[in-house]
Amino acid sequence: MTPPRPGASASRLFTPAFIGLGLVELAYFTAQGITIPLTPLFAAGPLGADEVGVGITVGSFSVTALILRPFAGQMADRRGRRPLLIGGALLAAAAIAAQAVVTDLGVLIGLRLLMGVAEAFFFVAGFAMVADLAPPGRAGEALSFNSLALYLGIAFGPIVGEAMLDIGGFELGWAVAAGLTLAAGIGAIAFDETAAGQPEPAPMTIIHRGALLPSVGLFTGVAGMAGFLWFLALYVRDLGMAGAGPVLLLFGLVVVGTRIVFARIPDRVPPFRLAAAALAMIAVGLATVAITQTVPGLFAGAALTALGVAFTTPAFFAAIVARVVPSERGVALGTTSLFIDLAFGGGPMLFGFVAAGLGIPAAFMAGAIVATVGAGGTAYAATRRHVAVNGDR
Q: Domains (ranges, CATH) in the chain?
């Protein structure tokens, strides 16, 4: 594999370096996708866990990932992106492979905690490397294309996992997932350090102030999306549908298609303004689902929400890259990924509390309100001189 070489081209995005990083990430995230169906089935089946045990097992992964992301950002700036990519992938490979011999639920939870550590290292380092490899003024486009590795991995990984389970049981599933993750780590060994030659990073800090505002805005959009996706399976049955598959397919196609076709938009429109519009689109989509309470309304709302999601992360990513010096990208993007983790946990929790008292449609409306607040705050930020980037005034 061709290693990433910083500064190889001042204008080309699809360099061997950028493509190589995408392939490594595709292998890693496909492996993570394989574990999505295997982990709860393994905990509930061979290990005999009840619903609470399954929930703790699955959720334990997020605990260490959430705690360590800001520290991973600091390490990415001080030690470089490459060591964290390699170390994160190899640690994940070892943790997944070890599950083949697990006979105790506590041990499985411990391995899931290790996988969270690996995820923090790999994700933040990859995030920072994308920013390093992006040509000037094309950070949003770079993330739009790079994020396809995550979406494709999470989309097709579970299908591979279920197929491996049918063919050779859990052992084959763990082996394939560990092999893909190991391949990602070996591939990353060939990479050059993209942080080389940058100024000495700032003194140790956990939260980067320059990334805080866009990270909070991103939180409001991701929280709405996460709540919608988690409660969709329950809601479609209230509407008389057999399952959420068609809606999820539409959602995924809109996100992936939009990011491919309109990949350059985040770098051509002032990022805070684009982010505000994207959050507003998410709010409109969720409100459409909540108000119509029909199957056509669900599909329309899902498409609108997906359209907003497609632009939200690239827009905020472009804003962060424009506001942060290269030597502090790791900690800045570690701050951002921390808020993404909080959104993936906090969104479903908010939806759950509201749905318990007022019903699922009300929960969707609550998500719309959160996204609306984020859109308003981001739009206001676009008018403030102290957060101006790429033409925002």
A: 16-189 (1.20.1250.20), 209-387 (1.20.1250.20)
